[in-house]
Amino acid sequence: MFANRIAPPQVNYLGFAGTSGADFYDCLIADQVVFPPNDRPHYTEFVSYLLNSFFSADTSISIDSLGLFPKREDHGLLVDGLVFAYFNNFYKITPSVFDTRIKLLKSFPHSVLWLSKFSDVATKNLVNEALKRGVDSSRLIFAELVPSRAVYLSRLRLADLFLDAPNYNAHTTAADALWAGLPVLTQIGSTFAGRVAASQLSALGLPELITF
Fold first, then answer.
1. Is the pLDDT reported for residue 106 higher than 90?
2. What is the pairing mode between strands 140-143 and 210-211?
């Protein structure tokens, strides 16, 4: 439809994290972090820069409305100790990414890695890989889906640090974590998709949470 010019003008925004490579989008909405000026030769669209971050966050549920903190023990988490959250999709967990997470668990013996439960097969595979690397499977906690966004945001507050995925960052997931007050640690990448969390952190004035 866009190739047939269904609208004047046609704008690439949020649907695809990077250039379309096509000549029928007139504009790409970005910011200086996700789209450094040096990347201009690699994009077919004209770039319209927004101040701060280009990424829009859902703030319709106020944090004050979430009420009291839930209890860690109700979610199988350590009452005392560090909870590292990794709520990215499982397909972002490469062997090297998982190795880094395991090294972190070994560096902090009284800690757990909290992941979303997307698939029983993937969950089993991650448990097996943790055991191969010498980490007890009880230190991988898998969060079940919850019935509402409010419950999801409230639960995020139980973690101490959100570990972002390199190469293809958390986008909405990072925004949700930050909105809930959970710090996000990201590694800035070389592509648009790998710089979105850094964009959000830069807009919040938290450059110390961006690694290179």
1. yes
2. unpaired
Give the C-alpha separation, 29 to 48, whole Å. Answer: 5
What is the rounded average pLDDT of the residues 126-132?
97
Distance CA 138, CA 112 (A): 8
Determine the Cα–Cα distance for residues 128 and 135; give it in Å rounded to an integer. Answer: 10
For the chain, the DSSP string reads -GGGT-SSS-EE-SSSSS----SS--EEEE-TTTS-GGGGGG-SSEEEEPSS-S------S-GGGG-SPPPGGGGT--SSSEEEEE-S-GGG--HHHHHHHHHHHHHSSSEEEEEE---HHHHHHHHHHHHHTT--GGGEEEEPP-S-HHHHHHHHTT-SEEEPPSSS--SHHHHHHHHTT--EEEE--SSSTTSHHHHHHHHTT-GGGEE-
- Give Dmax (Cα) for the chain: 58
Residue 122 structure tokens: 């993937």
Contact between 204 and 175 (Cβ < 8 Å): no
Structure tokens at 2: 């866009």
